[in-house]
Amino acid sequence: MSNSTSVLTELLQMIPHWRPQMYFKASLTALSHAMEDQVLASSEPPLVIASFQRERFYRQEAQRYRKIAQKTDQVYVLAAPETDFKNSSEIYETIAFKPEDKLTQEWHLIVITNDYASCLICEERTNSDQDQNGNISMDNSRRFEGIWTFDRQVTQQAANLLLNRIVAYRPELHDKISQARQQYLPSALLNEEFKILQHKKAANLTEDSPDINPDPFVQRLISYLQAGQYKLLKANRSLEGKEHKERLINHITTAIRRSLDPEEILHIAVQKLGEELGVCRCLVYRCKETDNTAKIEHEFLNEGISSIRGQTWPLKNNPLFQEVIELRDALMIDNAQNDPRITKTASADTEDQSLETLITSCSILSWLLVPILYRGRLLGMLELHHCGPNTVSWKNEDIALVNAIATQIGVALIQAEAYSNLQDLNEQLEALDRTRSNLVAITGHELRTPLSTIQVCLESLATEPDMSPELRQVMLNTALQDAERMRKLVQDFLTLSQLESGRIKWHPEPLDLSECVELSLSHVRTRHRNDNLPEITNLVTSDLPLIKADGEWLVEVLAKLLDNACKFTTSQGDVTISVAHAQPTNLEVTVSDTGRGIEANRLETVFDRFYQEEGALRRSTGGTGLGLAICRQIVKGWGGHIWAESEGKDLGSKFHFTVPIFLDSIPKRKADLEPSMPKNKLKKSSKKRSNK
Ligand code: ADP
After folding, report:
1. pTM for this model (two decimals)
2. Structural domains for the chain
3. Which residue out of 564, 569, 610 has the highest number of ligand 1 atoms within 8 Å of its CB and is therefore the one to mutate?
4. Is 625 near ligand 1, meaning CB less than 6 Å away?
5. Which string of DSSP letters, residue by residue, matches 7-36?
């Protein structure tokens, strides 16, 4: 029963000189609705035949067909059933055609009255919108091909073809359809006559001027076109908005990604965002969730808005900041002056009152806070302020934009961080490489000398059994001394390598400097117990503020400097250790002696590795030439400086270094911290390290 030839093909065979036209689904909807409205506006009862591809398309129009059915009893609706569409004669005739019928790909609407006739006979051309199950999308861009005309003869032929199909599906309607044919198709010509007539028309030998009233049709069509235009405009506007946003994000992203300097990234981001959004003030600062405050260093200001650069911004006591952390999302406040979160903190009798003061002093009226996150980790915050006089409602698209920029800043900051880590790593690698090269140099120049001595001594002892016991003892002592020198050299070298590679873990703690000095003096005295030491004067008193350093390493520096001072000063000379509190944040320790002094051009080089004035071979003092290089690395570790001073040869030397004061303790007395002072630990650990 189903038909595999389309109605359009059949019709076009009768009117071969007609060319089908292409229609989008949207146009067919507009034309169909206009034709249906023309029926509703007309007083003449029409013959209406509508064929829908699927039941669902018919469902969207069912309401209109119920209205049309009130005008005429000659309404035929065809569709491929999907749920409960079936052959029925209830309100009008419904014809459920088979899913394999060619009608599933067609869209027809025929209207014939005594006044006018029009038809829309179309077939879907492309099946690209059908999914694997053959379902048709509702997309308005679907394409059809066919004819739409007011030509009465063509419309009647089309009606004839469709009525034939209806009778085939519903033979019981034979009489009703015959009646329709009599009423609406009386002049329907036989195929041959119709073809001849069409040829004449094509040759302009006859004219067809249907006397119709196109008004309702045209009106309806226009309103559809208008609606379509409006939708298009809206879609264009939204596309433009999206495009603008994307361009802006790209622009800012490109600008911030060009830099690997976090400060520059924040500066560019805040400027560009502020300019684009036209806010009164835009801030960006780096922070962690646990930070108490942040310092404002990057801001964008519109004209007439007061700067808050350099100001300390509350975070811990700021309920808005805390809420953003919890939300992990943007927080917008349209009117900060009425916001309960702010007024609540103001009424509470706490230090949080500062938030309301802050709003007043910075004239913040509308406030947007957007977190800068990277994989859930808070890196910073973007803030936008409107300062009035009117409040501003934050728009979703602006918030989305700021969020997108915040994401980009997060990525740029992480990128910069990764780059800086890479640089550190490179520096460490370079340091390791230098150390490796030094090891080669040491092996060549430093270790070979004592090793040769040891070898000569041991060989003599082994090969000359007649050697006197005194000489034997001398040989043994020399070998032992050089073995000890080698041991010291290896140990100092390893210490310096560790310090230079940055692998040392510092343990800064509050310390009493005078105790550290005492400890280092006792090390020096123990080490030189058999030597005639110069007079050592300790001017470091115990009433100084506590310092913050790693005790073990501090004792190492002090011992090394005192050791050198004693080494290079005769027993008639003097060594003094003193301290000055010249700067508010650190103490300056000085070890001075009246010894052999250092020439002006050597004051820096003495800190180089393996520098020894007399050269390794002529060394009389037994050092390794690494002591001052180690001291410089240690002092650098706590952020201090070390330098040498001397009036010249034989005029004595002064070695100074700085060490930071433990700031939290300035007003406190040493005794207050006594229980937490790791005095024993300090001694123990220093002993452990001072076994050189
Ligand atoms: P060393 O193990 O040789 O003492 P250092 O690195 O401690 O190695 O010192 C390097 C060189 O600096 C010494 O060999 C010496 O020439 C010079 N120097 C260090 N301290 C003094 C000082 N107090 N007076 C004069 N020269 C010094």
Report:
1. 0.45
2. 7-214 (3.30.870), 245-419 (3.30.450.40), 504-690 (3.30.565.10)
3. 564
4. yes
5. HHHHHHHHSTT---EEEEHHHHHHHHHHHH
> Which pLDDT value is given to residue 442?
66
> How far is ligand 1, taken at its centre, from the CA of residue 608, in Å?
10
Do you find a cis peptide bond into 314, omega within 30 degrees of 0? no
> Is residue 496 lining ligand 1, measured as CB closer than 6 Å?
no
Integer-rounded Cα Rg, in Å, for the chain is: 49
What's the one-letter identity of residue 452? S
CA-to-CA separations, 501 to 65, 428, 436, 608, in angstroms, rounded: 87, 5, 11, 16
Q: What pLDDT score does 618 carry?
A: 42
Q: Nearest-5° angle of CA 281, CA 283, CA 287?
A: 160
The values of phi and psi at residue 335, to 5°, are: -135, 100
List the structure tokens of 319: 């309920």
Asked if residue 642 has its Cβ within 6 Å of ligand 1, the reply is no
Expressed in angstroms and rounded, the spacing between residue 375 Cα and the centre of ligand 1 is 52
**What are the structure tokens assigned to 653, written together?**
């030397």
CA distance 558 to 253: 52
Closest CA to 300 of 312, 291, 309, 292: 309
Which is nearest to 77 in space by CA: 99, 47, 105? Answer: 47
E strands, 486-527, are 509-511
- Return the pLDDT at 687: 38
SS3 311: coil
- Out of 590, 593, 606, 657, mutate this one to test ligand 1's pocket (max ligand atoms within 8 Å of CB): namely 606
Q: Is the CB of 613 under 6 A from ligand 1?
A: yes
Nearest by Cα to 639 from 590, 577, 603, 587: 587
d(CA 270, CA 470): 83
Strand partners, 370: 382
Q: Is ligand 1 within 6 A of the CB of residue 488?
A: no
Per-residue model confidence (pLDDT) at position 549: 94
Spatial separation of the C-alpha atoms in residues 303 and 92, rounded to whole Å: 72
Q: Which pLDDT belongs to residue 289?
A: 92
Helix axes 679-689, 551-567, angle to 10 degrees: 50
Q: Identify each DSSP E strand in 391-543 by its residue range.
A: 509-511, 535-538
| The pair of three-digit structure tokens given for residue 71, joined into one six-digit string | 């005008």
Of the candidates 547, 537, 496, the residue with the CA atom closest to the CA atom of residue 657: 547
Cβ atoms of residues 285 and 380 within 8 Å: yes
Query: Is 259:265 a contact under the CB 8 Å cutoff?
Result: yes
Q: Please tell me the residue having the least CA distance from ligand 1 atom 13.
A: 612
The residue assigned the tokens 């053959």 is 134
Average pLDDT by stretches of 10, the chain with 692 residues? 85 88 87 89 92 95 94 96 94 95 95 92 74 54 88 92 95 95 80 71 59 66 77 86 84 82 89 88 94 93 92 89 92 88 59 70 92 93 91 88 91 89 88 75 72 89 87 90 87 87 88 95 89 93 93 96 94 96 92 95 89 54 81 95 95 96 62 42 41 34
The tokens describing 266, both together, are 């924040």
Question: What gap in Å lies between CA 204 and CA 658, rounded to an integer?
Answer: 110
CA of 569 to the centre of ligand 1 (A): 11
